[in-house]
Amino acid sequence: MGVNGYGTIGKRVADAVDAQPDMEVIGVAKTQPNFEAHTAVKRGYPMYAAIPERMPLFSEAGIDVEGAVDEMVADADIVVDCTPSGIGAENKALYESHDTPAIFQGGEDADVGEVSFNARANYDDARGVDYVRTVSCNTTGLSRIIAPLREEYGVEKVRATLVRRGGDPGQNSRGPINDILPNPISIPSHHGPDVNTIFPDLAIDTLGLKVPATLMHVHSLNVTLEDDVTAAHVRQLLESESRVYVIPEGLGIDGAGKLKDFALDAGRPRGDLWENCVWGESIAVEGRDLYLFQAIHQESDVIPENVDAIRAMTESVDQAESMVTTDDYLGVGITGDPSGFSNEDEAEAVTETEIADD
Amino acid sequence: MGVNGYGTIGKRVADAVDAQPDMEVIGVAKTQPNFEAHTAVKRGYPMYAAIPERMPLFSEAGIDVEGAVDEMVADADIVVDCTPSGIGAENKALYESHDTPAIFQGGEDADVGEVSFNARANYDDARGVDYVRTVSCNTTGLSRIIAPLREEYGVEKVRATLVRRGGDPGQNSRGPINDILPNPISIPSHHGPDVNTIFPDLAIDTLGLKVPATLMHVHSLNVTLEDDVTAAHVRQLLESESRVYVIPEGLGIDGAGKLKDFALDAGRPRGDLWENCVWGESIAVEGRDLYLFQAIHQESDVIPENVDAIRAMTESVDQAESMVTTDDYLGVGITGDPSGFSNEDEAEAVTETEIADD
């Protein structure tokens, strides 16, 4: 497997694939020899130049380059494209020219792939498909909640307000500062139609905003269900989902900052939260209207989905086996216990290795 | 009229009352001689000490004090209590002991008054009543939208996500910084029940959050209507409301920051936006579901409501005459025209007076 674009998503995909028993990272491609390139070298990933003319820059920076990106594409069984939005679509011709199947990220338009993908909702749709798009962080977060609700109760309509972080922690030229921006101002936002790439017949209206925060998105979610249910029953249902963490009352986790502290304390790589983080206390039912708040870690929630997309496309194993394998080897899953990170020991082991490497 | 508590709300109420042709500010009471006390002196409002023992502090600061707050309460026909949440309820005994009617703010529990008040929705409920509570900034903002929608189309259910500013610009010890907090985490928030003090039979569920911004709240609003309507019809309806400003497309107003710039450019006192600011572009209808975004200036939207409450309680004029008088003399109302502030000339006059005073 090759990773084209080794930034926020790419570096996480490479590590997640590297952790799987049935996959190998044959290389990563970057446009420039920045700090992330040095990280890739330390982790032992062969480096390819995404822009061949820039190879000397890598050498000057002390980074050995294996070759140009098209060599990596030619050698790979599959490429995960993690380049910025819009570049993925431009790269598609390269993958096609080498008959190399590819996974694109959710920033691309839906038609870049034959299928838009969420492991929980439509794994089988990607079986044997050559070009797949894993949906965005927000769409992934919505799909993981909607899928079990639809199966268990039926969904009449979804209304979601997405209170989005203005930029990632490293994106220091983005805003807003001290403002609350309807974004887009027009309603509905594009997120609803994106969810419809996963659930074509779902009635969903979404509203987007951007605020001065960097850590996670927060969704204010309303789902009108077809059945009469209790909040307790919904909570139990969501607690049974491996990629949903229902935050227990009493832990003092009141926002994204404490969620990240919690993940970092547990030794999670980069403090990642691959799971939807749903506040248990927020789950409420009024009539057939279900409400909840969930936080979505925009840098990492799509990572397990990319790993599963590889298995679906290569038809190696079925949905259940792929998801369990991904979760086990990556360390996805948090129990209600505050020390319940399933990956705690492994994460510590990774940290020790890294320190030894340093 | 006396104002007890001359802070964010009190200083605005005093100026708004002072601008009315049928009202007079007989005094304002403060706990300490801070910068706002000096402003009150400059504006010519007699100063009373809210805590009598502190009178010497005012003298030391060069501020003449007329007396203690109970003298002001005894002399006033009506007191507007603008003290911090919870203090108003403690002050009620003082007002009762002098048989002085009083208006409380929305931070108090509903039972502090016999009636909770919004001029547009239930003016007549406060006629001749001695203790009235004007509802909070958020409840005021919701009531102004719900009232015309109920009258025109009927409302089946309201679902609102309130993305609230963490604190006012001067409240520099408040947060969050770089976080998006569900607040309260439990759903529904207290805002829905507060709206029910205005519309007792309304079905409404509200969800609250706090974000790192100080300028205005932003509401993501969904109203399921009883009639089938078009977005254009709703827009026309809201444009006809004097205390709702439908932001036209094309002005480049994309958030609270530009709204405040717009108000300051127009010479609005303190850059206040007394009106709900609804993005015209956001008004959308899907089936019978209406959606819109509105920004609410938490420091000022309740000001005209306090003025109208005085007239309702004293039974001087009817709802329509009171609201028109308040709006005319305060300068409430923005037309679609970018230079359409109705108070532009008056605001400039105020500014000039202040500069001459300084």
From TrEMBL, chains A, B:
Gene3D superfamilies given in the database record: Dihydrodipicolinate Reductase, domain 2, NAD(P)-binding Rossmann-like Domain
Question: What does the entry give for GO biological process?
Answer: glycolytic process
The Glyceraldehyde 3-phosphate dehydrogenase NAD(P) binding domain sits at 1-137
Q: Which SMART domains match?
A: Gp_dh_N (SM00846)
Q: Name one GO cellular component term.
A: cytoplasm
Top enzyme class, one word, equals oxidoreductase
Q: Give compartment(s).
A: Cytoplasm
Named in its record, the pathway it takes part in is: Carbohydrate degradation; glycolysis; pyruvate from D-glyceraldehyde 3-phosphate: step 1/5
Ranges of biased composition (kind: Acidic residues): 343-358
Q: Which reaction does it catalyse?
A: D-glyceraldehyde 3-phosphate + phosphate + NADP(+) = (2R)-3-phospho-glyceroyl phosphate + NADPH + H(+); D-glyceraldehyde 3-phosphate + phosphate + NAD(+) = (2R)-3-phospho-glyceroyl phosphate + NADH + H(+)
Chief location of this protein?
Answer: cytoplasm
**Out of the domains of life, which is the source?**
Archaea
Active-site residue list: C137
Query: Sorted alphabetically, which InterPro entries does this protein's record hold?
Result: GlycerAld/Erythrose_P_DH, GlycerAld_3-P_DH_AS, GlycerAld_3-P_DH_cat, GlycerAld_3-P_DH_NAD(P)-bd, Glyceraldehyde-3-P_DH_2_arc, NAD(P)-bd_dom_sf
* Similarity-based family: Belongs to the glyceraldehyde-3-phosphate dehydrogenase family.
Q: How does it assemble?
A: Homotetramer.
State what protein this is by name: Glyceraldehyde-3-phosphate dehydrogenase
Organism equals Halogeometricum borinquense (strain ATCC 700274 / DSM 11551 / JCM 10706 / KCTC 4070 / PR3)
